[in-house]
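Example for tutorial group B:
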């Protein structure tokens, strides 16, 4: 079953998802830095995950604020 939502609810959902993506980006960047000293393979994996969340965040930022392109870590 598909829920029908109004534009305000859709924007709230996108903003929640954007906040989650921002937090995950911070987490994976931090892990990448920490692991860089001890485990280069795991650090690389963490960096790839951070880049994935960065891409998601870029898209969500473009949806919410068209024309602005900035990553908010």
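The residue assignment follows.
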């Amino acid at each position: 079953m598909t829920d029908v939502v109004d534009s305000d609810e859709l924007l709230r959902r996108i903003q929640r998802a954007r906040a989650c993506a921002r937090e995950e980006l911070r987490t994976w960047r931090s892990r990448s830095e920490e692991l860089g000293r001890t485990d280069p393979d795991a650090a690389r994996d963490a960096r790839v995950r951070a880049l994935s969340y960065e891409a998601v965040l870029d898209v969500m930022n473009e949806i919410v604020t068209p024309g602005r392109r900035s990553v908010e870590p």
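The radius of gyration is 15 Å. Compare this with the pattern of hydrophobic and polar residues in the output above.
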